[in-house]
Amino acid sequence: xxxxxxxxxxxxxxxxxxxxxxxxxxxxxxxxxxxxxxxxxxxxxxxxxxxxxxxxxxxxxxxxxxxxxxxxxxxxxxxxxxxxxxxxxxxxxxxxxxxxxxxxxxxxxxxxxxxxxxxxxxxxxxxxxxxxxxxxxxxxxxxxxxxxxxxxxxxxxxxxxxxxxxxxxxxxxxxxxxxxxxxxxxxxxxxxxxxxxxxxxxxxxxxxxxxxxxxxxxxxxxxxxxxxxxxxxxxxxxxxxxxxxxxxxxxxxxxxxxxxxxxxxxxxxxxxxxxxxxxxxxxxxxxxxxxxxxxxxxxxxxxxxxxxxxxxxxxxxxxxxxxxxxxxxxxxxxxx
Length: 336
Hints:
This protein is of the alpha/beta class and 336 residues long. It is 48% helix and 18% strand. The protein folds into two domains: 35-151 and 272-300, Rossmann fold (3-Layer(aba) Sandwich); 155-269 and 304-331, Response regulator (Rossmann fold). The protein contains 13 helices and 13 strands. It starts with a helix and ends in a 5-residue tail after the last strand.
């Protein structure tokens, strides 16, 4: 009898050990499976419609390429909210998260990531000229761990649109941030193209958003219209720019489609969502091993969309031709 009880006890113990062993194996398997899912770390400089659209386009493109957040990829998102002091610690956090690929949305974010690693692949979103920003050796052959998508605007086409809408205007003022490396490159290129198009150009740099309202008051007395480049500081303060410009009846020509929706008159710009889609595709190519940053050229859009704010056009007494209405995306009111 005692032997039977002992054998039964041994059998029960064996079953418990066996079940525990199976659970441990299963748990380890699930843990390994989780670790197999790649991680993409995203650092966005600030929240505003243009950069938010880039992020959304990137997430959608990744899902379409088979990398759905929480299922086949883990997305770790950080937003600096225009606070430069946070970008370094956020970059380090994303690296500590074992990110397989990093994404920098806007120049300050991309520079912060690049300062923290020369090995983890970095994909750029919304950087006009990565070479002048010190992120790549050249836009054609980056040569390191960084590549991505340029948001360089088609300035020549923008100047042609201004001539159609504001044929009497000759004095253009460029409002931009002196704190952003990317802006200096843009202002140089924009100034050259505007001069070739027959405009006199004046430059108005500001160190932060705090000085924008005052600078706009100055510009209102000196220029015929205001041009705003793809500058994160300006994009973050677009409502202030539009409010002061409207008070003085001065048109604002931004370089980004979402800034027209916020009250700019018109632009020929890159669709920010599509920019994000291209960014997502480049991330997916790196994750699948189809490409490497060092040998992948910076992607630049060759054409843009015409976007016109109908309400602002009416405010400035501009009659839109039927041909222009057919070509353009009309925002801020319906065309007549």
